[in-house]
Amino acid sequence: MRGESVHRLAAAATLVTVAGLYFDGWWHGTFGRHSFWILPHQVIYGGVGLTASVLLFRWVLDRQAARAVASGYRVLGVAVGLTVLAAPFDDLWHRTFGVEPPTSVLSFWSPPHLTGLLSAIVGGLGVLSTMVQEGGSRRFPWAMIVQTVGVIGFATFALIPFEPTSLYQVGGVAGPIPIVLVLVGLRVMAVAVVRRAGTATALALILTPLVVFLSRAPRPDTHFVPPLQFAGILALAAFSAAAVLDLMFLRNPQGAEDGNTLGRWGVAYTTVFTLFFYPAANTVLRSGWSTPEIATMIAAAILSGYGAGWVAWWAARLLAGGRGSVAGTTAGAATEKRPHAVY
Q1: Which of 148, 81, 147 minimizes the C-alpha distance to 115?
Q2: What's the CA dihedral at 322, 327, 330, 332 to 10 degrees?
Q3: Is the dihedral of CA 334, 337, 338, 342 positive or negative?
Q4: What are the sequence ranges of the domains in the chain?
Q5: What Rg, from alpha-carbon coordinates, does the chain have?
Q6: Is 290 left (phi over 0), alpha (psi -120 to 50) or beta?
Q7: CA 94, chain centre distance (Å)
Q8: How far is it, in rounded angstroms, from Cα 173 to Cα 295?
Q9: In terms of C-beta distances under 8 Å and separation of at least 24 residues, what long-range contacts does 70-75 make, across chains too?
Q10: Measured between alpha carbons, how far is 343 from 323 in angstroms, rounded to an integer?
Q11: Could you tell me if 155 and 121 are in contact, meaning their C-beta atoms sit under 8 angstroms apart?
Q12: DSSP collapsed to 3 states, the chain
């Protein structure tokens, strides 16, 4: 039970950190950056501090059991160290180069920001891998879902400049491709490793309010604040796509072990989401894309959905330790002699 508590605490710490990150995005859009010690930074590093406490807890438990600290938590330890170092790095960066304008892609992709984001993503996946290998889908599925929310949240910030409806529009009409490969891939991966009905919907329940909150910050180039109608568009797209993904899992749970099946699930999720989201969001957010450009974005996203399924297959295998199926890892973690299917 104490081991399960560590995983649950790790997921809670991740949720605090990622909530602080979305709070930070809203704060910078609304008030700018007048000091490093603004409230959202305190929330973020409060979450990092909680994560460090969880690491200490896990180290004590593993030491008492006379075993090496789980590899996923060792990865998290390195990630926490890099995240802590990113704070003075960020302060030094701004002292040296000034505060980049919010209209600059460096507001997301400055070296200290990328250091923190990529460290958080890798560290979060490290903990998730330990959860998977220690029977997470049977024992603590909600901790796995919350941990995945954190990874998706960090990855979303790293990918925002690619979003065609955002200010930056890096990649143009091809911008949805990396977004789908990573963010849809992570959602399909979660369904494959958690193996519980409603996993995709649970992810949407936690993530959608965070994105809606972030969207309420004024757009830095025009100070335009998206109307509440955008929240409805986002919720419709997110929950409809999640429901389709959950339904496909319910109809064929064994398909979570097959890359081709996961590819089809990725296409289904992406098709529903983009058809609901891009045409309406383009109008509401005043993004300025023409109808042929929107159609091209939708086509690029849908075609990338199959690749996202294969990303999910590869990531799920990696989380399971590369030894076999996630089903074998989570459902039979205590049965070492059980044969594993190829995943």
Answers
A1: 81
A2: -100
A3: positive
A4: 1-162, 177-343
A5: 20
A6: beta
A7: 27
A8: 9
A9: 70/130, 70/133, 70/134, 71/126, 71/129, 71/130, 72/126, 72/127, 72/128, 72/129, 72/130, 72/131, 72/133, 73/126, 73/127, 73/130, 74/126, 75/122, 75/123, 75/125, 75/126, 75/127, 75/129
A10: 8
A11: yes
A12: CHHHHHHHHHHHHHHHHHHHHHHHHHHHHHHCCCCCCCHHHHHHHHHHHHHHHHHHHHHHHHHHCCCCCCHHHHHHHHHHHHHHHHHHHHHHHHHHHCCCCCCCCHHHHCHHHHHHHHHHHHHHHHHHHHHHHCCHHHHCHHHHHHHHHHHHHHHHHHHHHHCCCCCCCCCHHHCHHHHHHHHHHHHHHHHHHHCCCCHHHHHHHHHHHHHHHHHCCCCCCCCCCCCCHHHHHHHHHHHHHHHHHHHHHHHCHHHHHCHHHHHHHHHHHHHHHHHHHHHHHHHHCCCCCCHHHHHHHHHHHHHHHHHHHHHHHHHHHHHCCCCCCHHHHHHCCCCCCCCCCCC
176 closest CA partner among 302, 285, 25: 302
Tell me the CA end-to-end span of the chain in Å, nearest whole number.
29
Express each pLDDT in 217-234 by its tens digit.
888 878 888 898 999 999
For residue range 185-215, list pLDDT tens digits in order. Answer: 999 999 999 999 999 999 999 999 999 999 8
Residue pLDDT, tens place only, 174-188: 999 999 999 999 999
- pTM for this one? 0.91
Instruction: Please identify which residue in the block is written with the tokens 């599925």.
Output: 141
Show Cβ contacts of residue 314 under 8 Å, excluding neighbours closer than 6 positions. none
d(CA 208, CA 250): 23
Nearest to 120 by CA among 169, 89, 86: 86
With 0-12 / 13-18 / 19 or more C-beta atoms within 10 angstroms meaning exposed / middle / buried, residue 59 is middle
